[in-house]
Amino acid sequence: MKSKTFSAPGVMPTVLVALCFSLCLSFQASAQELDCLKCHAKLIAEKVKHAAVDMGCPTCHTGIVANTGKDAKKIPHKKTGTIAKGLSSDQPELCYSCHDKAMFSKKTVHAAVSMGCTACHSPHSSKNAKLLKSEPPELCFGCHDKSLFNQKTVHAALGMGCLTCHNPHSTEKAKLLLSDPPELCYGCHDKAMFSKKVVHPALDMGCPSCHNPHSSKNPKLLKSEQPVLCYDCHDKGIFTKKTVHAAIDMGCTGCHSPHSGDNAKLLLSAPPELCFTCHDKAEFSRKNVHLPVAGGLCVACHSPHSTDNMALLLKEPIDVCLGCHGAVEQKPHVIKGITNSGHPLGKKEKKDPKRPGKKFYCGSCHNPHSSESMRLFRYPAKSTMGLCINCHKFGGK
């Protein structure tokens, strides 16, 4: 028995109606996409394409409809809203439909976010990663002064890209940094160099307290030349007295580690070895060595920076010597003359007869560092009288 098919004049079965309706919608959507690409194909022609493009143009552009009027060929579509480009909402709210808003609203927000995502990103396609309009750092120079990044000394991190240190959208840290200095800096710089026994207090102030993080006209990215930079924290008066240690002109880091070290005062090595970097060790290691020298106590007599006295001495020469050898002036020194005063010690202003331009004091007879002769005599002598003849003439011509 043949089955009968229901058919009524002018009436289409419900299933067929639904199928036709579905096909019409599909054809319409396809037609709309083709219509967009017919004029806007270049928008998605680049290497990196926005995922939203595959979702269809109306995903973002809800305020645009086809123009069916007489001027359709001239104006193929019209805006139905007040937002630019027929977008469903303004940036960046539109983008938050897909992108997590929390990533853009942390404590420190990049000012560019308020300019809209398309200030940096192409909304359709780009030849650059992340849909960027151009590669960093050139992209960043659209807002940031390029001259701050191309001075004589440039931080190597710039070649790695701004995002090596900064978040482009928002972060909990100042300056949009990924983490606080110095931890951020340890991503490239060996932490061990900054965490030895004695640590420079400036590290607690952050690396940018001394270094420019981008570029500088000075070596090591320093904000200013040494020793001027150091005067920001250290009293300049200590370094600018009448007699200045020549090492100051070499920069503080000639003697001190700027970050951390294993020696007191951040010294690169312990005295006297540190001093022998510039001073001839032979002058300090003869047969008889002055005890303070042997103990490395250079700064017991000398200022390492500057002083108002000769030879960087902490006090007037005679006063330095009497600080340890006070008993010398308690009785006549060396010889008892008619006046019972003994040999002059140098308390009165007098010139050294053997060393032009030098003051007369204990160092005129005794070498304050080391000597091949007894009692640290400055000149070869096997007895006191043998020393005296260097200045005094006894009989004869």
Description:
The chain is largely without helices or strands. It has a domain at 315-397. 11% of the residues lie in helices and 8% in strands. It is built from four helices and 14 strands. The strands form seven sheets. It has a two-stranded antiparallel sheet with strand order 1-5. It has a two-stranded antiparallel sheet with strand order 2-3. The chain has a two-stranded antiparallel ribbon with strand order 4-7. It is rod-shaped and about 135 Å long. The chain starts with 13 loop residues before the first helix and ends in a 9-residue tail after the last helix. Residues 1-13 and 15-34 have low confidence and may be disordered.
List the helices and strands and how they pair.
Blueprint: H1 14-40, E1 48-49, E2 64-66, E3 77-79, E4 108-109, E5 125-126, E6 153-154, E7 170-171, E8 198-199, E9 215-216, E10 243-244, E11 260-261, E12 288-289, H2 291-294, E13 306-307, H3 317-322, E14 370-371, H4 384-388
Antiparallel strand pairs: 1-5, 2-3, 4-7, 6-9, 8-11, 10-13, 12-14
Give the end-to-end Cα distance, rounded to a whole number of Å.
163 Å
- What kind of oligomer do you see? single chain
State the order of secondary-structure elements, H for helix, E for strand: HEEEEEEEEEEEEHEHEH
Indicate the proportion of strand residues. Answer: 5-15%
> What Rg, in angstroms, do the CA atoms define?
42 Å
Mean pLDDT, to the nearest integer, reads 88
Helix content: 10-25%
Indicate the structural class.
little secondary structure
The largest pleated sheet is described as: 2 strands, antiparallel
Q: Strands across the major sheet, in which order?
A: 1-5
